[in-house]
TrEMBL record:
<dbReference type="GO" id="GO:0006589">
    <property type="term" value="P:octopamine biosynthetic process"/>
</dbReference>
<dbReference type="GO" id="GO:0005615">
    <property type="term" value="C:extracellular space"/>
</dbReference>
<dbReference type="GO" id="GO:0030667">
    <property type="term" value="C:secretory granule membrane"/>
</dbReference>
<dbReference type="InterPro" id="IPR000945">
    <property type="entry name" value="DBH-like"/>
</dbReference>
<dbReference type="Pfam" id="PF03351">
    <property type="entry name" value="DOMON"/>
</dbReference>
<feature type="region of interest" description="Disordered">
    <location>
        <begin position="90"/>
        <end position="112"/>
    </location>
</feature>
<dbReference type="InterPro" id="IPR005018">
    <property type="entry name" value="DOMON_domain"/>
</dbReference>
<dbReference type="GO" id="GO:0004500">
    <property type="term" value="F:dopamine beta-monooxygenase activity"/>
</dbReference>
<feature type="compositionally biased region" description="Basic and acidic residues">
    <location>
        <begin position="90"/>
        <end position="102"/>
    </location>
</feature>
<dbReference type="GO" id="GO:0042420">
    <property type="term" value="P:dopamine catabolic process"/>
</dbReference>
<feature type="domain" description="DOMON">
    <location>
        <begin position="33"/>
        <end position="151"/>
    </location>
</feature>
<dbReference type="InterPro" id="IPR045266">
    <property type="entry name" value="DOH_DOMON"/>
</dbReference>
<protein>
    <submittedName>
        <fullName>DOMON domain-containing protein</fullName>
    </submittedName>
</protein>
<dbReference type="GO" id="GO:0042421">
    <property type="term" value="P:norepinephrine biosynthetic process"/>
</dbReference>
Length: 180
């Protein structure tokens, strides 16, 4: 009986986590070729959905200093039904590495995702200001540089992007302009 109760509780928690992350009604969306970036600002948090026509990773970066340097990247993929999401920092103009390896922390929560029919979709929440030295604070009313990218059909954060674009976005209103 205890096993059954534990199993049911675990099922509810797992299902509840998926529902929490994926049930947001996203207020804004940018559709750019094979990728979509949807988001909602909710108090001190940013809820995100990334969708890409790939069986590899999808990712978003915020406020780089130059090219990739200084950007706060969140990347994710789904392999064997399991979602993996990581928080990276652009450590130079053409590369990034995990926040945990740079003295920071992975500040993502409410993680969920799926991969079906050649499309990868991930959901996550990040704080607008994590206080982490490897993350930039996001001002919902200001202009945020958003980098979108996705990898080819390999579930590895080391694989190079097959698609990328740059947008200037006001997170609170959804106003956006594609830069590259």
């Amino acid at each position: 009986m205890k096993r059954l109760a534990f199993g049911l509780m675990l099922l509810v928690l797992l299902w509840g986590g998926w529902t929490l992350a994926s049930s947001h009604d996203f207020q804004h969306t940018i559709d750019d070729g094979p990728m979509s970036f949807s988001w909602t600002v909710d108090g001190e948090n940013l809820h995100v959905k990334l969708t890409g026509k790939t069986t590899g990773w999808v990712g978003v970066g915020f406020n780089p200093e130059k090219m990739m340097k200084g950007a706060n990247f969140i990347m994710g993929y789904v392999k064997g039904g399991k979602v993996k999401v990581t928080d990276h920092i652009g450590n130079n103009e053409r590369n990034h590495k995990a926040d945990k390896k740079s003295g920071g922390a992975n500040n993502t929560s409410d993680i969920a995702g799926s991969e079906e029919g050649g499309v990868t979709e991930i959901f996550f929440t990040i704080p607008l200001n994590s206080g982490d030295s490897t993350d930039t604070a996001l001002d919902p009313g200001g202009v945020t540089t958003v980098l979108l990218g996705m990898g080819g059909g390999r579930d590895s954060f080391r694989s190079v992007h097959k698609f990328r674009s740059v947008h200037q976005v006001t997170l609170s209103t959804g106003a956006s302009e594609k830069v590259k």
